[in-house]
Amino acid sequence: MRNDKLFFCVFLFFFFCLELSRGQNNGKTQVNVGVVTDVGTSYSEAAMLCINMSLADFYSSRPQFQTRLVVNVGDSKKDVVGAAIAALDLIKNKQVKAILGPWTSMQAHFLIEIGQKSQVPIVSFSATSPFLNSLRSPYFFRATYEDSSQVEAIKAFIKLFGWREVVPVYIDNTFGEGIMPRLTDALQDINVRIPYRSVIALNATDTEISVELLKMMNRPTRVFIVHMYSSLASRFFIKAKEIGLMKAGYVWILTNGVTDVLSSINETGIEAMDGVLGIKTYIQKSQDLDKFRSRWRKIFPRLELTVYGLWAYDATTVLEIAIEEAGTNNMTFSNVVDTGRNVSELEALGLSQFGPKLLETLSKVQFRGLGGDFRFVNGQLQPSVFEIVNMIGTGEKTIGFWTEGNGLVKQLDQQPSSMSALSTWQDHLKQKIWPGEADSVPKGWEIPTNGKKLHIGVPKKIGFTDLVKVTRDPITNSTVVTGFCIDFFEVVIQAMPYDVSYEFIPFEKPDGKAAGSYNEMVHQVYLGRYDAIVGDTTVLANRRSKERQC
Ligand SMILES: *[C@@H]1O[C@H](CO)[C@@H](O)[C@H](O)[C@H]1NC(C)=O
Ligand SMILES: *[C@@H]1O[C@H](CO)[C@@H](O)[C@H](O)[C@H]1NC(C)=O
Ligand SMILES: *[C@@H]1O[C@H](CO)[C@@H](O)[C@H](O)[C@H]1NC(C)=O
Ligand SMILES: *[C@@H]1O[C@H](CO)[C@@H](O)[C@H](O)[C@H]1NC(C)=O
Ligand SMILES: *[C@@H]1O[C@H](CO)[C@@H](O)[C@H](O)[C@H]1NC(C)=O
Ligand SMILES: *[C@@H]1O[C@H](CO)[C@@H](O)[C@H](O)[C@H]1NC(C)=O
């Protein structure tokens, strides 16, 4: 009996020691990976927390795994060169086998070159510019959606409402311009014209933004696609509202660059965006995601969890899986020191021998992440659904979805057969509001009048007034113009593809008598007193020469 117990205790002790020794050196192969990020910013902090949570969650549920990632942080100092220096330092001094990050597409440019030269995969969860594809580096992976993937959703939208002209508004950098090639092509497909582009500097002053907005106001196109960072978008919309571009008649469409991070915009900014439409990254609902969100709210109640946090978590998971699968051989760099020759910093890095194998396993990993099914296709994630949102008051409302198979639908489970060829926009989207609470779909085009209305002359007549009749409202003393010609004019204006605001001005003397003959009235158009005339006028040769085009 006693002996048995003793034996059991000894056995337990032995086992405990074994576990302890394992705990100390872990019995695991530690693999250095780098994170290049803008240390000190709130978005970077949230992403770091997600990376750390992934490491903890992943290995605690997979104790049998032989590798353990060790994260080394490099500060890019919110700078392109800073990011490159941080990456070089991580590769040289920590021999990292992969790098998570960097934050922006501009920073990614350099890093992709460095990754390619040294065979260190770069896995970014936030650099979304399509331009990065043109570098064609197999060592670059994008654990996020590339910006131009939402272009088809924008196109479907513009087609649905039948707008003929669209003006893109974007930041003049790699991020902003990245979407343009595919957007231009997509709009060309449906014969939608881009009359001009509005390009805004990231550090534009409020005055510069106002000048650009006034330019937009003075041109007829009223449909704008805004692709910029949320910080700039916030200032932009506050100014737009101030100047009067958030009124009825205007259409604003935001890309997911803004709608995915609305939480970073303050209430003033959000309210200025009332009536704006947006394309938003769709994240499939799941129990894991719900659990993660509620955990996050408990631990970091004040820190917002954005879609980039979810991508950061999933990007870390993909590295954990791929590195385990790549095994523990070949963990060195070749040609590291080459003292004899004068070599560049880049050449001095050498080649990660682990690189080719890691590349292979990274490309094959598939799992169910927080952001949905995770699988690299041509080195990046491929979305098949986007959410359509409408900014209302102090928040956003989902008014539909865009799916690869069915286009715009109100609900994801909506049957495409319930939408006939003659369907209206209400069959595809839920009720939405437009800027200025316009009660009909804006026409997207307006004769810019700077708030002035077109002056339409009407004849003051005595006798036969079925065609035009001018009276004065006895209470308000305002002019009331009625008659067949007026009804006809109003129907024509309604049918025009753009909005026109106008007022009727009777051709009369202060005493209310007609101010002259028809010929004299038509002459007023030539003189510029009227922009046009409505009435039972006959177009005669001598009159026509005097008509002005408006
Ligand atoms: C995440 O983990 C790294 C490495 O262990 C550590 O340096 C960093 O402070 C952690 N970051 C946060 C935000 O907890
Ligand atoms: C914005 O930045 C550019 C270059 O980075 C500089 O030339 C320009 O003067 C800056 N503009 C303002 C208003 O700060
Ligand atoms: C909200 O943000 C805008 C632009 O970013 C800024 O100008 C404004 O002062 C902010 N308002 C408040 C109340 O913080
Ligand atoms: C390396 O290049 C620098 C300047 O490019 C030169 O001054 C130096 O002498 C070179 N060293 C060797 C060992 O060639
Ligand atoms: C190490 O990597 C090189 C190529 O980088 C490969 O040729 C070699 O077979 C690898 N060695 C092992 C043991 O995997
Ligand atoms: C009514 O309006 C006309 C023109 O706008 C003006 O000449 C006239 O004095 C006004 N009459 C009254 C009673 O206000």
How would you describe this protein?
With 550 residues, the protein is α/β, with parallel strands linked by helices. It folds into three domains: 2-147 and 285-375, Response regulator (Rossmann fold, 3-Layer(aba) Sandwich), CATH 3.40.50; 149-284 and 384-437, Response regulator (Rossmann fold, 3-Layer(aba) Sandwich), CATH 3.40.50; 454-549, Periplasmic binding protein-like II (D-Maltodextrin-Binding Protein, domain 2, 3-Layer(aba) Sandwich). 38% of the residues lie in helices and 19% in strands. The chain has 19 helices and 22 strands. The strands form six sheets. Strands 7-6-8-9-10-15-16-17 form an eight-stranded mixed β-sheet, sandwiched between helices. Helix 2 (42-60) packs across helix 13 (307-326), helix 3 packs parallel to helix 4 and helix 5 packs parallel to helix 7. It is elongated and about 105 Å long. The N and C termini lie far apart (110 Å). The chain binds 2-acetamido-2-deoxy-beta-D-glucopyranose (6 copies).
Report the total helices: 19
User: What is the CATH class of the largest domain?
Assistant: Alpha Beta
Kindly name the structural category.
alpha/beta
How much strand? 15-25%
Small molecules bound: 2-acetamido-2-deoxy-beta-D-glucopyranose
Question: Strand tally, please?
Answer: 22
**Spatial strand arrangement across the major sheet:** 7-6-8-9-10-15-16-17
For the record, the CATH architecture of the largest domain stands as 3-Layer(aba) Sandwich
